[in-house]
């Protein structure tokens, strides 16, 4: 009787540990599962951007955008001469007020970044941007230098290898090596993409 | 280690009970804490990242899913164990492990923010509430394992950086160990204090038991003394009753003597009358036998000498007077018998109006020369009492009243009045005995119920009468006996007796 009770408790505890481990594993794995990333145009004709131009595509409702914008701000502080453009992508079928959210609010506070409201995702489609948080950096020649995310995981602001890579790309644009990094965020256009 | 600090089996038991109480109290704290953390994690996820999007299509964000599912899973096992086996060591260790997993989950949900790592140290403090240093080992192992595994596979979720720093977990673990060591010493000190408190409480309980035993012994002795006192009191009442009977005996004898005297006189008269009639009848028979004719003149002369008309009128009256006298004697004897008859151990229903009438007959010789008695007796229910003792109370008060009246009117031809009133309400019966005697001086009125207190001359009172009356009314019957008096005007005694449930209205 006593032994069976101990065995039952041992099974219970082992089952709980196993289930909890699996749940934690799924949780951690999902947080670093990147979104879709397609090759952007390697060259893009820029106007009035002598130091190059950095695009950030965000979904207006994506919660991960806050972390991305935080890192983007840090990059701006490191390389202020570059032209920055925040592209808020409005999926097809959404109204203009769908743009309301953290990204639009951030834009009102940070005028150093141009704002583009991309209705129906026309520009995102043109630049092959699929996932919220994707950054494209074109140097002064219009050559693609960087493509991908600038956070280390979903909703993870702070230190990021990708962000450091982007800063390096801006600083050493003469090397002409394209930095490609995973991007973490919502799908910009969904099935439409 | 700590059980050696307790000095006795009782202290050991107290120590164990207190430990279990601490465990259960801490379980309660953790139940609230787990719920709070779960609610907090869900709220944080709802506020920061409630939804994720596929274009315009929204679905629940994985952070919220993690908070609900993983948080619920963390809580499930400790809740179950606390409910089923609250006192088992396994429960405490699993509560500890779950709390450390909460730290891991919250650190993940906040993407390894350094501030959230303070949750680990707060958790250790909560775990120290159990005062069980072994749990700190479990906590250190869980948090070290979590940091090691996540440091290898998901370093960004625990350290907030993507760079692989396998040995960094040692730095985190070292700080956790540091706090655990501090808490370990705190736990041990607390355990030592609990052991000392157990020893102290055991000593107090043993002392309490000794005191209780002593109190019980003293109470037994007191009860025995009380019983003896009660017996002495009962004997004293009986003695005083006999004394009262003895004192009343002369008066009763006198009361009996008067009717006996006129019964005797009447009997002699009847005997004389019957002798005269018998002689006359014998003469008539003799004349009738010696001559054929009777001399009517001689017969009439003899009848005249007999005073026949007088005999014819007085003899029946003499017989009636004798019967009346014997009836009075019988009534006095019956009253005396009722007054003197010893009480039963238990109370019995009694008619107090009848008791008053009986007492007045017995004590008549004490008051009849100095006072008139006025009765105003209301309808009384039968009262559960020892009637003989109450008779004694009544006679003591009535005799005192007679003495007070005698003192007031001595040397005059005036007479006093003793008024006896009875009435009843829902709970009590009240007997009021008022006299028009000399009254009681104010200095004495508070002492009249004290034993052996008397202002009478030697031979007229022992000072026991009112004291015993007070004892009988208050202690034996649960009633009250009060007196009011105006010096020179008289005194009033009020006896109040509770009516028990076993009463019916007197016929």
Radius of gyration of chain B: 51 Å
Biggest β-sheet: strands ordered side by side in the sheet of chain A = 3-2-1-4-5-6
Largest interface: pair, residues per side: A-B, 45 and 40 residues
The rounded distance between the terminal residues' Cα atoms of chain A is 62 Å
Query: What percentage of residues of chain A falls in helices of 4 or more residues?
Result: 25-40%
Count of discrete structural domains of chain A: 2
Distance N to C terminus of chain B: 83 Å
Major sheet details of chain A: 6 strands, mixed
Radius of gyration of chain A: 21 Å
Helix and strand sequence of chain B? HEEHHHHHHHHEHHEEHEEHHEE
Report helical residue fraction of chain B.
Answer: 55-70%
Brief overview, please?
The complex is a heterodimer of chains A (193) and B (507). Chain A is built from five helices and six strands.
Throw out a few tags for this protein.
heterodimer; A: 193 residues; alpha/beta; Glutaredoxin; 2 domains; six-stranded mixed beta sheet; 6 strands; 18% strand; B: 507 residues; alpha+beta; Heat Shock Protein 90; five-stranded mixed beta sheet; two-stranded antiparallel ribbon; 14 helices; rod-shaped; disordered C terminus
Task: Describe the protein's architecture and organization.
Helices cover 35% and strands 18% of the residues of chain A. Chain A is an alpha/beta fold and 193 residues long. Chain A has two domains: 31 residues; 140 residues, Glutaredoxin (3-Layer(aba) Sandwich), CATH 3.40.30. Chain A has a six-stranded mixed beta sheet with strand order 3-2-1-4-5-6. In chain A, helix 2 runs parallel beside helix 5. Chain A is elongated. The model of chain A has no long low-confidence stretch (mean pLDDT 87). Chain B has 507 residues and is α+β, with helices and mostly antiparallel strands. Helices cover 67% and strands 11% of the residues of chain B. Chain B contains 14 helices and nine strands. In chain B, the strands form three sheets. In chain B, strands 4-6-7-9-8 form a five-stranded mixed beta sheet. A two-stranded antiparallel ribbon of chain B has the order 1-2. A two-stranded antiparallel ribbon of chain B has the order 3-5. In chain B, strand 1 and strand 2 form a beta hairpin. In chain B, helix 7 runs antiparallel to helix 9. Chain B starts with 8 loop residues before the first helix and ends in a 9-residue tail after the last strand. The C terminus of chain B is likely disordered. Chains A and B meet through helix 1 of A and strand 1, helix 2 and helix 3 of B.
């Amino acid at each position: 009787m006593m032994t069976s009770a101990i065995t039952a408790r041992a099974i219970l505890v082992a089952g709980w540990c196993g289930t909890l481990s699996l749940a934690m594993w799924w949780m951690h794995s999902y947080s670093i599962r990147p979104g879709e990333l397609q090759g952007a145009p390697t060259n893009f004709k820029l106007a009035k951007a002598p130091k190059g131009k950095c695009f950030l595509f965000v979904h207006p409702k994506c919660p991960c955008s806050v972390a991305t914008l935080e890192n983007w701000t840090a990059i701006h502080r490191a390389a202020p001469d570059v032209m920055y453009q925040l592209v808020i992508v409005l999926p097809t079928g959404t109204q203009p007020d769908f743009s309301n959210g953290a990204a639009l609010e951030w834009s009102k506070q940070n005028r150093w970044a141009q704002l583009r409201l991309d209705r129906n995702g026309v520009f995102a489609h043109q630049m092959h941007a699929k996932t919220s948080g994707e950054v494209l950096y074109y140097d002064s020649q219009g050559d693609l230098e960087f493509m991908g995310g600038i956070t280390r995981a979903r909703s993870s602001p702070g230190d990021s290898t990708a962000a450091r890579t982007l800063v390096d790309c801006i600083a050493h644009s003469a090397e002409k090596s394209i930095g490609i990094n995973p991007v973490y965020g919502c799908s910009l256009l969904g099935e439409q993409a | 280690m700590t059980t050696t600090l307790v000095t006795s089996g009782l202290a050991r038991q107290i120590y164990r009970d207190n430990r279990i109480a601490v465990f259960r109290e801490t379980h309660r704290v953790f139940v609230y804490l787990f719920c709070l953390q779960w609610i907090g994690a869900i709220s944080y996820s709802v506020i920061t990242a409630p939804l994720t999007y596929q274009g315009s299509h929204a679905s629940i964000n994985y952070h919220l899913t993690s908070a609900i599912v993983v948080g619920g899973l963390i809580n499930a096992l400790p809740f179950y164990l606390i409910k089923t086996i609250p006192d088992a060591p396994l429960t405490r260790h699993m509560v500890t492990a779950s709390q450390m997993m909460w730290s891991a989950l919250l650190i993940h949900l906040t993407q390894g923010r350094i501030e959230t790592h303070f949750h680990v140290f707060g958790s250790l403090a909560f775990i120290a509430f159990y005062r069980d240093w072994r749990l700190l080992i479990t906590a250190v192992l869980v948090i070290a394992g979590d940091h090691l595994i996540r440091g290898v596979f998901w370093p960004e979720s625990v350290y907030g950086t993507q760079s692989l720093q396998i040995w960094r977990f040692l730095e985190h673990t070292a700080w956790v160990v540091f706090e655990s060591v501090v808490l370990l010493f705190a736990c041990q000190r607390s355990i030592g204090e609990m052991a000392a408190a157990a020893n102290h409480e055991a000593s107090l309980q043993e002392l309490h038991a000794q005191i209780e035993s002593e109190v019980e012994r003293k109470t037994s002795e007191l009860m025995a003394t009380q019983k003896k006192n009660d017996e002495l009191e009962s004997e004293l009442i009986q003695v005083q009753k006999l004394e009262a009977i003895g004192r009343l005996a002369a008066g009763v004898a006198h009361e009996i003597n008067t009717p006996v005297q006129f019964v005797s006189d009447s009997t002699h008269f009847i005997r004389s009358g019957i002798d005269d009639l018998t002689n006359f009848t014998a003469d008539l028979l003799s004349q009738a036998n010696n001559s054929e004719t009777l001399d009517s003149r001689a017969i009439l002369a003899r009848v005249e000498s007999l005073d026949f008309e007088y005999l014819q009128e007085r003899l029946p009256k003499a017989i009636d007077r004798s019967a009346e006298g014997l009836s009075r004697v019988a009534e006095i004897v019956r009253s005396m018998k009722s007054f003197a008859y010893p009480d039963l151990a238990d109370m019995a229903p009694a008619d107090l109006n009848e008791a008053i009438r009986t007492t007045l007959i017995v004590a008549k010789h004490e008051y009849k020369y100095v006072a008139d008695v006025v009765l105003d007796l209301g309808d009384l229910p039968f009262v559960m009492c020892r009637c003989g003792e109450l008779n004694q109370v009544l006679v003591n008060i009535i005799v005192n009243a007679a003495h007070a009246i005698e003192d007031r009117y001595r040397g005059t031809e005036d007479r006093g009045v003793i008024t006896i009133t009875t009435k009843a309400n829902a709970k009590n019966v009240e007997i009021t005995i008022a006299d028009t005697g000399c009254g009681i001086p104010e200095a004495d009125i508070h002492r009249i119920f004290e034993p052996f207190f008397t202002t009478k001359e030697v031979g007229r009172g022992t000072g026991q009468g009112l004291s015993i009356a007070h004892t009988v009314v208050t202690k034996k019957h649960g009633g009250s006996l009060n007196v009011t008096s105006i010096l020179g005007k008289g005194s009033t005694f009020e006896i109040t007796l509770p009516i028990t449930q076993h009463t019916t209205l007197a016929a």
